């Protein structure tokens, strides 16, 4: 993507808009925690030890599968609006939660693929080619954000701070690097979906929160990339200015 010399950008207004997106990204996650009566830090303890032990391995495999499936589907199915992605994953979360842990685990790679397609759709919306290897890198990098059940004030912006020259092996290495962190986030999702009694309700609410979160984070990721090009401002500088905004009270996650 190259800058259009005819475009004039209000950088400050765009940064305010992106700060608002980031601040509201985790709003539904807090409601999920209230629903299931727990804290994000303790959710993993609800999973059986064998499941916890295999989360990293399973998440990396799910990311590889999702990358292949998402890229392969682009020629068959067009990008869907955000509300459609959210509706589909919400229904899947309800089904996964209804059947308990086994069905929630079976649903996980499919939901991960839909999330990745949604992130790719945001990239395309901002003028980036999801088939380009560096954009594939950026899409996977979105998954290294803290997750919808975490509270933060903008400190977790490392996922937008670095732009690397990407080759095939590097895409595989970024998956390996992102997987451990995503494993914790998805482990929290699994635990939330399998809360006794709530079942399908918790599963639907959790998937709604996760899909809303990653789509908002993708808008921040690619919005900053686009702003750096259109505004002719270094990416690192924009990230620091966004972080400063998020540290202020009006932009803190609620």
Which key phrases capture this entry?
single chain, 11 helices, globular, mainly alpha, 254 residues
Describe the structure.
- The protein has 254 residues and is mainly alpha-helical.
- The chain has one domain.
- The protein has 11 helices and no strands.
- Helix 2 runs antiparallel to helix 10 (200-230) and helix 7 crosses helix 9 (168-193).
- The longest helix has 31 residues, at 200-230.
- The model has no long low-confidence stretch (mean pLDDT 82).
Percent range for helical residues? 55-70%
- Overall average residue pLDDT: 82
Distance between the termini: 34 Å
Let me know the number of strands.
0
* Rg, Å, rounded: 18 Å
Classify the secondary structure makeup into a structural class.
mainly alpha
Summarize the structure.
By secondary structure, this protein is mainly alpha-helical. It has helices at residues 11-25, 27-36, 40-43, 49-53, 55-73, 82-98, 100-125, 133-142, 168-193, 200-230, 235-247.
Topology record:
Elements: H1 11-25, H2 27-36, H3 40-43, H4 49-53, H5 55-73, H6 82-98, H7 100-125, H8 133-142, H9 168-193, H10 200-230, H11 235-247
